[in-house]
Amino acid sequence: MAIKHWITGVALAAFAGIGAYVYLGAGQQAAPSSTFVLLDGSQQTTADLRGKVTLVNFWATSCTTCVAEMPDIVRTYDKYRAQGFETLAVAMSYDPPSYVVNFAESRKLPFKVAIDNTGAVARAWGDIKITPTTYIVNKRGEIVKSYVGAPDFAELHRLIEKLLAET
Prior knowledge:
The protein is an alpha/beta fold.
């Protein structure tokens, strides 16, 4: 009987420890050190994103889900940008730059758009092959959530609001 109580106690302690680890964010990893080349030729690094909650979206003009979710990404950016929210759309290396420029200009994307010509950025962020793949990075530069495919935007907005409220 004592062994049964001991095993139960150890199991409860383990679950509590795992819960605290997840809840407190101890499992979060730093966003990879990357340099993004923007459409205007300027560069932005992951270090430049510190202090802001950032959505990093890997996408392609040939990806129907990417094209379909882009208006929601624009609305999300417009809703939170005044509060310190940033969005960075990273076009995949196989996407022709002229298509990316045309897409960004014709849809008047209000956020930063980068072209990953060499694929180095996609490799650094987990060797991304599937688009869209989206990461949410907190103000400390840590990845707190990733989505493969279109996110649930209501859930995403709740997460952004929570992260923006953090100091």
